[in-house]
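Appendix B, Record 12. Input sequence as logged:
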Amino acid sequence: MLVQIFQVDAFTRRRFGGNPAAVMILESFLDDACLQDIAAENNLAETAFLVRDGADYRLRWFTPTVEVPLCGHATLASAAVVLERLEPRREVVTFHSASGPLVVSRSGDSYVMDFPARPMLATSTPEALTAAIGQNPTETLVDQHNYLAVLETAEQVRKLAPDLGVVTLLGRAGLIVTAPGDDGYDCVSRYFAPAKGIPEDPVTGGAHCALTPYWANRLGKTSLRAFQASARGGELRCRTFGERVELEGSCVFYLEGQAEI
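Logged structural output:
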């Protein structure tokens, strides 16, 4: 069976920047083991599988090792595929997912995603977290998905070299590290998720579902410019409203073809 496959760099205007995602178009979802094998073969942080559902699409995301309940950059990449390649006259697409309906709309040469916010709660800093990053955060927060460690400066975030083996001991899927921004950004961050088979995710929409309400509250703003300071780097415009966040970013197409399954 031949299926369409796209590889898209998300949250960037520069090819080889942002976060690469594979997007594959299926007539129906294959069995879970097969989807996982395909994601492992693609060997990207995320592979998105799309199945048409009336005027909308059903969407699932897999890392090389597990299925995840939400993935921002692969949703952004999926929207680019639908709005630029599959149905270029469309302005809005709705994806039905494990996190509910996700609406993505065109905004000039960018795309705006409407996602559920992930408010986090302040907590004491686990010893393993301090050991993992080699320093004491100024604040530590947690939700069911991730720990969030707040550092004093963007430079500390950029230079961080965490012990990923210790990060896996935190009992959460991942660790977000953040600080006030520099170079015109409101905040900078990095995201480490070795438990999901992703040592460091280049740009992470799901993490910004938590970062957006945190920094909006701290800075007294509803609109933010965010930078994820991975080696590839990525830019997001983030807005908060109630229990939702808007994440806006651009995409660059890298690969288009067919996969034989």
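Helices lie at 32-42, 72-86, 127-133, 154-159, 164-167, 205-219.
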